[in-house]
Amino acid sequence: MSIVPSRGRYEVPSSVLGDTWHMLAAPGREGWEASALWIGLPANDSSTRIVAAWQPEQIAYKTLHGAAVEVTQEALTDLILALTPGHFVAVRLHTHPSEAYHSEVDDNNMIIGHAGAISIVVPNFASDPLELARCSVNELLPPGGWAELTTAEVAQRFRIV
After folding, report:
1. Residues 63-77: pLDDT tens digits?
2. Are strands 9-12 and 158-160 parallel, antiparallel or unpaired?
């Protein structure tokens, strides 16, 4: 899997945002968490252009302690083989049944784990159109802890085009 350091700012086409919402909302209507990935290309030294949303094969489950979703090892292998030169997994997105927050399970269930990785948690099983301002947007900081970005930081670092 191609992993690159954080590129700071992200340019996200509205079509990718819409595709992602559809990927996440369909399982949500059935009461299941879902996950998607944004594939990016470096635009310059400090920004990434998101070029596609990809929904890997995944297993959603519910327990007495809540709901979760895991991406299969086969899906990760498929993704690694499908990435073309220069492309990388820029952002992981997944849903929660109610509020958006980065849980302990999310902390440990990483698809991307490089410093600067972005993990976006979408509330309410993505029942509403995807708006980053209503999500929990988190960045992996060295030496390995997740920090939630403020609404102002999200607005500054993510541009929907």
Report:
1. 887 788 888 889 888
2. parallel
